């Protein structure tokens, strides 16, 4: 009779043993015995910022199929990258993704291995640099995301919100790193938070760190991480203008910086400002008989919620305003419209959501 394997008395060893047995097979994760591909690791880390694994899986596969190497992505037109990114949000990430690919391709040496050098790349911040260095190059780096914060806060019953306890959380996470397998240690902590130490219903009996967990010992898993009081998001109002000319509609290319920077969109009021309904007409792209649709579209951004009235009109104008162009309504799905603009187009009956 085979005896069940005893749990390790060392948290770092217990964590790695669990990861070896329970780790998910993910498209960007190297299989056992394979060397990680830095391009795949980097691409996944950028895509996973503020986006779920389930959402990223399909989009990641499409990106990789279209641009299988960093050199391929660097050669791609920015418009194609932005269109492929549509729906993943935070479009500045797509612009930085393209800029980073070009910087890496131009260097001729591939991705740098050191955390400090990675931070010099466009769109690569402290967390992303540490994650790439550890996962792709097995560098002894500590990458702290929301999953790691939650695991460490519960493990040590940290009485401060993660933002205020960042240094302590990083120190405690570093203590769980294996010097021999830093990349696997980083992924193991993230995986534990994603699969076991969930925000609302942690599966403590299945957790390899449960014997060491202060929150569980206190019976207070739900109290950690300590939450800061939520500030209500401001609600803003604006308008989106859909101008039709036969089978075409008017699109505007937005400035490179700012909300939806560099994307194609319908003309609108400045969406980061609260605009009174009486002022909507000042922002219309053309003199026309504008008609407001019955209900506004709503969209929640990171820092505010938006309620946008959709106006529609028809014109026979031969030219478009200087910053706009006519686009075929049948091709709107290929224009890479931001989700808010797709909501407006669906509301006007131009596309399906």
Give a short synopsis of this structure.
The protein is built from 13 helices and 7 strands.
Class based on secondary structure composition and strand pairing: alpha+beta
Spell out the helices and strands N to C. Answer: HHHHHHHHHHHHEEEEEEEH
Sum up the overall morphology in one term: globular
For the CA atoms, what is the radius of gyration?
Answer: 24 Å
Poorly predicted residue ranges: 1-6
Helix content: 25-40%
- Would you report the number of β strands? 7
Whole-number mean pLDDT: 92
User: Biggest sheet, open or closed, and with what strands and sense?
Assistant: 7 strands, mixed
Number of DSSP helical runs: 13
Give the distance, in angstroms, between the N- and C-terminal Cα atoms. Answer: 57 Å
Binned strand content? 5-15%
Q: Can you describe what's shown?
A:
By secondary structure, the chain is an alpha+beta fold. The chain has helices at residues 11-22, 38-48, 53-66, 70-75, 78-85, 92-107, 115-118, 126-137, 146-155, 166-174, 182-195, 214-218, 339-347, and strands spanning 235-245, 248-253, 264-265, 291-292, 297-300, 305-314, 324-328. Strands 1, 2, 3, 4, 5, 6 and 7 form a seven-stranded mixed β-sheet that branches. α1 crosses α11, α8 (126-137) crosses α11 and α9 packs across α10 (166-174). It is globular and about 75 Å long. Mean pLDDT is 92; it is low at 1-6.
């Amino acid at each position: 009779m085979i005896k069940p394997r005893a749990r390790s008395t060392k948290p770092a060893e217990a964590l790695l043993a669990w990861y070896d047995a329970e780790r998910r097979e993910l498209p960007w994760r190297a299989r056992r015995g394979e060397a990680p591909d830095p391009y795949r690791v980097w691409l996944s880390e950028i895509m996973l910022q503020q986006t779920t694994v389930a959402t990223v899986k399909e989009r990641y596969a499409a990106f990789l199929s279209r641009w299988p190497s960093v050199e391929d992505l660097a050669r791609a037109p920015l418009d194609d990258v932005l269109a492929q990114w549509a729906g993943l949000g935070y479009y500045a990430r797509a612009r930085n993704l393209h800029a980073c690919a070009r910087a890496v391709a131009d260097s001729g040496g591939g991705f740098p291995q050191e955390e400090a050098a990675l931070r010099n790349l466009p769109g690569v911040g402290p967390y992303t640099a540490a994650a790439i260095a550890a996962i792709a190059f097995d560098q002894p780096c500590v990458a702290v995301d929301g999953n790691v914060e939650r695991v460490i806060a519960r493990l040590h019953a940290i009485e401060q919100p993660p933002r205020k306890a960042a240094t302590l959380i990083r120190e405690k996470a570093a203590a769980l790193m294996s010097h021999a397998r830093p990349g696997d240690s980083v992924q193991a902590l993230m995986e534990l938070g994603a699969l076991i130490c969930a925000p609302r219903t942690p599966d403590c009996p299945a957790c390899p760190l449960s014997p060491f967990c202060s929150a569980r010992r206190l019976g207070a898993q739900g109290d950690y991480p300590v939450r800061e009081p939520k500030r209500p998001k401001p609600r803003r109002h604006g308008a989106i203008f859909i101008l039709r000319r036969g089978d075409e509609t008017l699109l505007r290319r937005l400035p490179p910086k700012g909300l939806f920077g560099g994307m194609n969109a319908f003309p609108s009021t400045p969406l980061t400002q609260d605009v009174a309904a009486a002022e909507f007409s000042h922002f219309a792209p053309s003199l026309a008989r504008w008609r407001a649709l019955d209900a506004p579209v709503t969209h929640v951004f990171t820092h505010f919620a938006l309620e946008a009235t959709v106006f529609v009109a028809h014109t026979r104008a031969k030219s478009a305003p200087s910053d706009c162009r006519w686009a075929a309504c049948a091709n709107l799905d290929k224009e890479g419209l931001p989700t808010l603009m797709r909501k407006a187009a669906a509301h006007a009956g131009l596309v399906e959501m």
